[in-house]
Every structure is written in C-alpha cells, then in structure tokens.
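User: Predict the structure for this protein chain, please.
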Amino acid sequence: MAATLYFDLGSPYVYLAVERLARFDLGDVRLRPVSLGALFKYTGRSSWGLGPDREGGMAEVERRAAEYGLPPVRWPEGWPGNYLRANRACVAAEEAGRLEPFVTTALRLAFVEGADLGGEEAYLEAARLVGLDPEAVRVRIEEQELKDRLREYTDAAHASGVVGVPTVQVGETLFWGDDRLEAAAAAANSSNKGEN
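Assistant: Here is the predicted structure, written as structure tokens:
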C-alpha cells in the first residue's frame, strides 16, 4: 500500500521528514503539496512560528536536525512567510515529473541555505536546479487550473483529516509529525504483509 506525505514548503518539520524518508521502509511515497495556510483557516489554528512558542519551536527543530545528522538549520529571513506560490510551483514540478527533486532542493535552499521560499527568486532557483524552465514555472503557477489543483489537493487532505504537516497517510490512518515516520513505516509494512 502506497503512503502519501502531505507537505507545505514553509514547514521546517517537512524538511526534517523529507530528508529522512529514505531511512524508513515506507515503500513508494507519494508527495502531495497542500496549502498549510488554508488548513489553518479550516481548523482555526495558526503557525507556531507566529506564537509565543516560536523560540522554543525553532530550538526543537535545530535539536532534531542535529540528532538526525542533518546540517545545521539556517532560518530564512522573515520565516514564516507566504508560501502559496512556492507550493503551486510544486504542482508545476509534479506535472513535469520533477516533484521529488524539486521539493528536496527547495527545502534545502530554505532550511540549509536560508533562502526565503516566500520570494519568487528562491523557488524559481529550485526549479532551475532540477532542470525546469523557471519562466515556464512562473507563468504556470498563475494559471487558474493549477491554482485550483493545489486547492483540490488541500481540500482532499482536509477531508481525510489532515490538520497539519508533515502528515503521512497509510490507508485511512494519519501520522502527523516528522517524529511519526517510524510508526507510519510500521503501519505500511503491516498493511503490505496483509495484502500478500
């Protein structure tokens, strides 16, 4: 059974999860971009990065990155920002068959190099680095059909019970948080054995 990883490029916890996916036996994982801002509106929540726990949350991300053997986290100036266009660029990358490398590259630009994915320059650079035409991506993400697809992905995730990112879905079960990858892998293996 394939797993789905719901993500938004603005989340440092998504960076921690994506960097470690290969360490877990999750089989084929489908990456699915969503708008975390829209999920927040649906659930009446907001980003911890804008609240009183901001410093503690940032320290926790940095601690986990070190524990996982990842490079030190560099926080983009102005984080958290508006990542709607960057997440639309994920849909454009998906159309081109380059979603996985685009996501990995964009997250590294953001949380290893400190680039602001809320700005066009950063996500278009990620597109260029994975062999996409930045100008074509810039045009595509403003087209209504693509905007609607990100909205549909987000609405479907919300309907499935997704309230935050990263969330891995295995069958009907949701695992929210980068620290739930092991549990998600166990569930994926259990269901795969049941199918054999």
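The beta strands are 3-7, 29-33, 167-170, 173-176.
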